Amino acid sequence: MKVNRIYLDNAATTPLDPEVISEMVNVMTNYYGNPSAIHAQGREVRTLVEKARKTVAGLLNATPAEVFFTSGGTEADNTAIRCGIAAFNIRHAITSKIEHHAVEHTLDMLLKQGVIDKLSFVNIDAKGNVDYDHLEQLLKENGRSFVSLMHANNELGTLTDIERVGEICEQYDAIYHCDTVQTMGHYQHDVRKLKAHFIVCSAHKLHGPKGVGFLFVNHNVKIAPMIYGGAQERNMRGGTENVYGIIGLSKALEMAYAEMESHQNHIQGLKDYLKNRLSTEIADISFNGETDADKSLYTVLNVSFPAMDMSDMLLFNLDINGISASGGSACSSGSNIGSHVLTGIHADPNRPSVRFSFSKYNTKEELDIVVDKVKQIVSQNVTA
Question: Is the pTM of this model over 0.90?
Fold first, then answer.
């Protein structure tokens, strides 16, 4: 018998929306031409791809020529960072110690290869907030730089004021890349106001398919491709387009924008409800990152639990109780592979943390079950 599970790991991936599936199945069933072909079947598929591009661009207040479809957020981040730094021969980059690995590992690689001479880390506080004064200081001291700072941290949910970052970068002629994977489709992004040169999307974070995303490249920036092999994406990304994925992405983003306000209200209500119930029901609970609505991504709540016997089994215990979530702890030593984000904000390595992340499909009734299960697990394992 299949056990009914409660899925609270939507920051990792979201369920496909049935309307997105329907749109994709229609294309899979009825449109099979290669969009690069000049015959009728190819042209009709090319029309679908360009219609999807126009839809995405319209939602971002961009032009279609600024939107390039990719295999997801990691490829988009890599392209922005590697090709952006190369295009302007930039030798200094600025990031934070709590960025996604798609950013962190790419910049580390460029430093090791000598592509950049220096990698600076902007100060962040104990909740993951960027020190904007320190960012400005780094830009003053190091000349033209490449800045990569995310919109919302994928583990903590803490939001960065990306319009403010964009204004600071503009003042010092810096190239600004913003990882918007966690916030695309959850907040409106007007690229004419953001002053970011690059932002990114991964469709599976907003009820779209896996394996597809896009990179926005501001029309003032000209970069070379990262992937060669064909003239696709206006010579910017070789390889036959993932047509079904692109159609699914476009549909998912269109739906996300249309339903954004109602989803925000519903999901923020779930987050506040779980936060309040956990605070009331379990002693010594705290929260990693910002949790106020105006400072935190409404889909993410990172809970810091008291020290436990076998704290590394907390997620396993949740899993066997039918609750899907994610998390970990701060790294306590060089040999301990924990969360680099929790380490970056100097979280207590003895306290296990769980990231609960919500979607439009979750309910308060589910959260009541979660609280009951968590109480049971904690009471059995908390260190005396």
Answer: yes
